[in-house]
Amino acid sequence: MAGPIRILGLDPGLARMGWGVIDVTGSRLVHVAHGVLTSDAKADLGRRLFALHTALCEVIAQWSPQSIAVEQAFVHKDPSAALKIGHARAIALLAGAQAELEIAEYTPNHIKKSVVGAGHAGKEQVQAMIKRLLPTARVEAADAADALAAAITHAHYAGTRAKIVAALA
């Protein structure tokens, strides 16, 4: 039997970037670590992005994931907020590419549907399901819960994809 696959989930944001690491063996999910990276709201955009990139690279180096799952941005009513999330997403994708990781992206609705069963679930519902699926996680921050949900979504999708590839081989 192959060893566990380590997945880093990311919930990008310029002020707060949630991250969560899980190990997956078959259908078994194990919480490894989670947290929230922050940037100084008083700093200019370049310095904020640099701070997030540096911190995210440290997370990747510390936890050595094989792949990352990044939540896609949805269009906000505020175009400025959408751009800020886009910048943070670019940092997540860049850090993953620099580490030569497999990168997967999922819409917020896809993640919610995978974890909660409803694409329009609220943050509280996502947090509740994360506590059920990963009881040792003790996650309090919604950003970290969303990141763990992205990792779980990728675990489910990657497992299904592997079964399809094996069946076609």
Brief sketch in words of this structure:
The protein has 169 residues and is of the alpha/beta class. The protein has helices spanning 45-63, 79-98, 108-115, 123-133, 142-168; strands at 5-11, 16-25, 28-38, 67-71, 102-106.
Give an overview of the whole structure.
- With 169 residues, this protein is of the alpha/beta class.
- The protein has helices spanning 45-63, 79-98, 108-115, 123-133, 142-168, and strands spanning 5-11, 16-25, 28-38, 67-71, 102-106.
- α2 links the parallel β4 (67-71) and β5.
- The mean pLDDT is 90.
First-last Cα distance: 19 Å
Q: Strand sequence of the main sheet, in spatial order?
A: 3-2-1-4-5
Strand-pairing-aware structural class: alpha/beta
The description of the largest β-sheet is: 5 strands, mixed
Mean pLDDT: 90
Residue share in helices?
Answer: 40-55%
**Low-pLDDT windows of residues:** none
Number of distinct helices: 5
Number of strands: 5
SSE order: EEEHEHEHHH
Q: In angstroms, what is the radius of gyration?
A: 15 Å
Tell me the overall shape. globular
Percent of sequence in beta strands: 15-25%
